Amino acid sequence: MLKNLHIKNYALIQKIDLDFQSGMTIITGETGAGKSIMLGGLELVMGKRAQQGLLKNQEIKSVVEASFEIGNYELKHLFEREDLDYEDHSIIRRELLPNGKSRAFVNDTPLRLESLTKLTENLIDIHSQHQTLALNQKEFQFSLIDALANNMEVIKQYKEDYNQYIKLQEQYQTALSKLENSKKELEYKSFQLEELKSVKLEEINQDELELHLKKLDHIEEIKLTLGETILRLDAEETGILEALVQIRNSFSKISDFDNAYREISERLESSLLELQDIAQEISSLSEKNDFDPSEKESLQETLNQLNILMIKHKVAHTEELIELRDALEHDVTDLTFLEENIEKTKQHIDVLEKKMMQKSEVIYQNRLKAIPKLVEQVENILSRLSMKDTKLRIEIRHLEKFLPNGKDILDFQISSDGGKRFGNIKQFASGGELSRIMLAVKTVLSKYKKLPTIIFDEIDAGISGDVAQNMAEVLKELSRNMQLIVITHLPQIAVMGNRHFKVYKTKFKDEIETNVKLLSKEERIYEIAEMLEGKPPSDSALRHAKHLLKL
């Protein structure tokens, strides 16, 4: 509900502050007094793009600020989605700067105009004869039917299933496409994987394998070198070891005569032990160097396999082949289980379809029952508005495919000749009739759904007499369920308001300014009398005004 509207430095408005209450608020004023200016300021709060030249004083910014009580509108999810701080009492501010730029804020948090529009369309609905009729919009039509059908909870559950259903359908189709494209890929990757698995890569040390083959290639040279070395080290009388033993013994005899001799003797002993150990190890290596041609052949085959795989896969080492094999195994596993996952997804989709089928049938049956009730209530109100020959027809078709809010499509049609010919609402109704149809529809809807504040901008144009009186009564009835702000020229409607504002112009030092004031009881009597008779009102007009106001 709109609680306050503050406008500063906008067009002809220097500054106004208006407090609003529940029920119906009336705004009147002479043609050109500035009612449309005030409405334009409110439209800025709703996200309308600002035009140039709207600042009254070009040196300072213009500010339009509106405060709302929104605790009953269930808008927390919208605030969260737009990353805004939610408060039950929220303030929306729009600033127009002298440089031509504008800014928008909700509870002092800046936001884009697109986000502002999404928010405020839940708070204010400005309706005039020139407005495109929302009744032609499918979303509004369904919200109207479903409010009367009490479908909101089941539709909420249906939409949760539907959103999941759409996601799963996308996953299912993507998986099917992937499976189709990957059948050949699966065969190729499986072949590559088996080829890599045939070589036990973890058991192969490429560096050691290459070194061992190099050794086998030079085995005769190795044997010859080892044999000659053993002979030179350990040959009797002429071997190095025998000579070293004799030298050590000689120095051992003189080691007690000088520390230098003792040190050489110890080093000779150490060298002898080291050479004896070397000779023993060479002898052991010589015994192990039995050449087996089959071993070389096997090792060479393994290395050849390894080299072929590395060249094929453009890698330089066994470790890279292992990484490639593991990646292929992962891919093949994924592709192998893809078919299984597709089947599971299909089963999940089937379950959701059954649930949606049941819910969509409930939604459809509820809508079928609600349509006659809606048509009857709307036609009753239209009859009161001197449109008794206007008939509403709502057709519903239950489809095979699932839609975002069920399986139905609606067709709203109207007849202005008592039901002989039906057609599109905009084609079969004038501007004034469209306004009365919308008034009737929203009067019915307000009984079943929390509606935003509605501002009716001179929807009473071109009517008078009983029609005006009946429209006034319908507006009053509507205001019992919601907040209405009505801009009117008709006294029959003006007297129905709980509060009454007057828009007027003043002139000071050649400067024209638009002002708004809340009328007292006496001022309201005078205003109604002027609306009845003109300026200045006669005593009979004043008495008639009191009568209409029931004073």
List its salient traits.
Rossmann fold; alpha/beta; six-stranded antiparallel β-sheet; about 550 residues; six-stranded mixed β-sheet; elongated
Structure description:
By secondary structure, this protein is an alpha/beta fold. Among the domains are: 1-123 and 454-517, P-loop containing nucleotide triphosphate hydrolases (Rossmann fold, 3-Layer(aba) Sandwich), CATH 3.40.50; 181-335, no CATH class; 520-551. The protein is built from 17 helices and 14 strands. It has helices at residues 35-45, 76-81, 113-120, 138-149, 152-197, 206-217, 219-234, 240-254, 259-288, 293-312, 318-384, 425-428, 431-445, 465-479, 491-494, 521-533, 539-548, and strands at residues 2-10, 13-19, 24-28, 62-69, 89-96, 102-106, 109-110, 124-128, 391-403, 406-415, 453-457, 484-487, 499-508, 511-518. The strands form three sheets. Strands 2-1-4-5-6-7 form a six-stranded antiparallel β-sheet, covered by helices on one side. A six-stranded mixed β-sheet has the order 8-11-12-3-13-14. Strand 1 (2-10) and strand 2 form a beta hairpin. Helix 5 (152-197) runs antiparallel to helix 11 (318-384), helix 8 (240-254) runs antiparallel to helix 9 and helix 16 (521-533) packs across helix 17 (539-548). The longest helix is centred in the middle third of the chain and has 67 residues, at 318-384. The mean pLDDT is 85.
Topology:
Blueprint: E1 2-10, E2 13-19, E3 24-28, H1 35-45, E4 62-69, H2 76-81, E5 89-96, E6 102-106, E7 109-110, H3 113-120, E8 124-128, H4 138-149, H5 152-197, H6 206-217, H7 219-234, H8 240-254, H9 259-288, H10 293-312, H11 318-384, E9 391-403, E10 406-415, H12 425-428, H13 431-445, E11 453-457, H14 465-479, E12 484-487, H15 491-494, E13 499-508, E14 511-518, H16 521-533, H17 539-548
Helix pairs in contact: 4-11, 5-11, 6-10, 7-9, 8-9, 11-13, 13-14, 16-17
